[in-house]
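Sample 3 of the quickstart, ligand magnesium ion:
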Amino acid sequence: MTGNDAELMALQQAAKTRHEIEAAITSMFAAEDEGLRAALETAKQAGLPQIQISPIQGKFLQLLATMCNAHKILEIGALAGYSGIWLARALPPGGRLITLELNPDHANVVQHSFLVFIDADKPPYPQYLDWALRLTRPGSIIVADNCIRSGKAFGPAENADIAGIIELNKRIASDPHLVSLVLAMDDDYTDGFAVAVVKHQ
Ligand code: MG
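Result:
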């Protein structure tokens, strides 16, 4: 066996281990029930792109919403409603999930949102962040999906999608009012959420 073969085997083993870990975490902490599976099936039959968040990401959104005691959640980019189901289940009785598909006129409804989830088209990510910053207050959490993109989010802006993501990451990383981090937690740890918490001054 050559050195390259050994290296390849080690890489394959590491990938296998990552998949096993992900499957174990999913089944223990983030198993999909009938409602979530039905939403996926409906989306598939409607021919929507299969780009929804993973179950682990859905559960992580629930964790964040619970941590910041979110009574209102704003979701920008709903796709088939899969992430909306995860988010809505974190709300207390009387809580509200507000879903926006590119309509800034609705933004005044959500003055006191505590969690904003951005998972829409990528070029306007910085503008969505602007809205989110206007709508949130200390203790609120802003989450944006697809902020790693196989590492392209840290390289040169090769297209408008990546440019939008790079700009959002730069801004949340340097904004003195936020504590933020990008977490590799999807697509075999090559993509994931940017998470920013609005600081108490
Ligand atoms: Mg996404």
